[in-house]
Amino acid sequence: MKYRFLGNTGLRVSELCFGCMTFGQGFYGIGQVEQDGATALVKRALDGGINFFDTADIYSEGQSETLLGGALEELGVDRDAVVIATKVRGAMSEDAGNGTGDVNNIGLSRKHIMAGCEASLRRLGTDHIDLYQIHGPDDRTPLEETMRALEDLVQQGKVRYVGCSNLTGWQVVKANSLAGPSARFVSLQAYYSLLGRELELDLVPMCEDQGLGIMVWSPLAGGFITGKYRRGQDNPEGSRRTTFDFPPIDKEKGYDVVEHLEGLAKSKGATIPSLALSWVLQQRGITSVLVGAKRVEQLEDNLGAVEIEWTPEELAGLHEITSPPNLYPYWMQAMFART
User: Fold this and answer.
1) d(CA 273, CA 15)
2) Which of 201, 204, 213, 250 is most buried (most C-beta within 10 Å)?
3) Radius of gyration of the chain (CA)
4) How far is it, in rounded angstroms, from Cα 22 to Cα 32?
C-alpha cells in the first residue's frame, strides 16, 4: 500500500480508502453487513495497509458509523493510527426529508451541522473526526452559515479537516472564498470511473489549481464493472443494480468496457474489478479510491489493485474507448490552445 497527501495538507492517507456504506441494514439495500462482518472487513483493510475509512451519517441511519466505531474498538486500534471521514447533509429522519416532523434534521444549517457532528462522534465512539465532509449542496442555507459552522467545529477540536462531496467547481471555489483559514475544503469526494469520466472536464483541473485532494466514490460504477453484468444476460440475483440502478451509465458502452477489461485481465493475471480500480489510481489528481465490500474475499481482490502495472499502450486503449464527449467550452478552448 502506498500513501498520498490529502490535497495541500500534511495528512497522509492510503491510496485505497475503505468505504463503509455496506455496514448496517438499509440504505437502498446496500447495507447488509452486521458487526462481526464489519469487524472482519476492517481488520483485513488494516492488515492490507489501509489507514483511511469513510462513512456518512445517512448510511443505514447511522448504523454504518456505529459499526465502524465498534470494529475499531473491538480490534483495539490506536485512534491516531487511522483517518476517519464521515459526512453531513442528508435527512436523518424520514419526516425531515418530507418537510414535516423534525424539519431541521436535514441540510447544512448551523443547527443541523452542530447536532450532526455530535451524533456522529457518539456513534463512532471518538472525540474527533479527521475529515468532516458536506455530502452535497444545500441551496436553502446561506453558504456563509455553513462554512462558519464548520470553522467552529475545527476551532473546538471536534474536526481536524473539512471536505466536500458532489459539488460543482464553482461551488467549491465560492465556499473556500468564504471559509475561515482552518475550514477551507481540502478534499472533494466525487464519482469517477471508466464509465463516468466527466470529472476530468472541470473538477480535476479545479482541484489541482485549488489544492484539493480527490477521493473517488463508486470506481466500479455501482458494481457494473465487475464482470457480473453482461450483454444479453439478466442481472445476477441479488446484485446491487437489480434494486438500485445507480449511478447512471451508458450500459452498452459498459458492456464494451467489461469485455475489453476481460481480455486485459487474462493477459495480466488480474481481475476485472482490480483493473478498473487500478486504472482510477493512475489518473491525475487522485488521492484515494474508495472500495466497499460485503465479504472479505471481495476486499482481498480490491487490495490487489495497488500491485497492478500498466503499459502505456494498455492505458491508451482504455482511454480511447472510454473518453467522455468533448463538451463546450472545452473544444473551443482547445482551438485557442493550438494558436
Assistant:
1) 16
2) 213
3) 20
4) 6
pLDDT at 238 over 80: no
Listed residue (271, 246, 241, 12) closest to 279, CA to CA: 271
Question: What span, in angstroms and rounded, lies between the C-alpha atoms of 217 and 222?
Answer: 9
**Mean pLDDT, rounded, for 47-72:** 98
Q: Is the pLDDT of residue 253 over 90?
A: yes
pLDDT at res. 219: 98
Instruction: Determine the average pLDDT of the residues in 52-59.
Output: 98
What's the half-sphere exposure (Cβ side, CA atoms, 13 Å) at 80? 0
Q: Which residues are catalytic?
A: 59
Place of cell 463512532: 124
Whether residue 277 contacts residue 220, with contact meaning beta carbons closer than 8 Å, is answered with: yes
Residue with the three cell numbers 473539512: 162
Degrees (nearest 5) of the Cα angle 210, 206, 337? 120
- Percent helix, strand, coil in the chain, to 5, is 45, 15, 40
105 within 8 A of 118, measured Cβ to Cβ:
no
End-to-end CA distance of the chain: 43
pLDDT of residue 338: 84
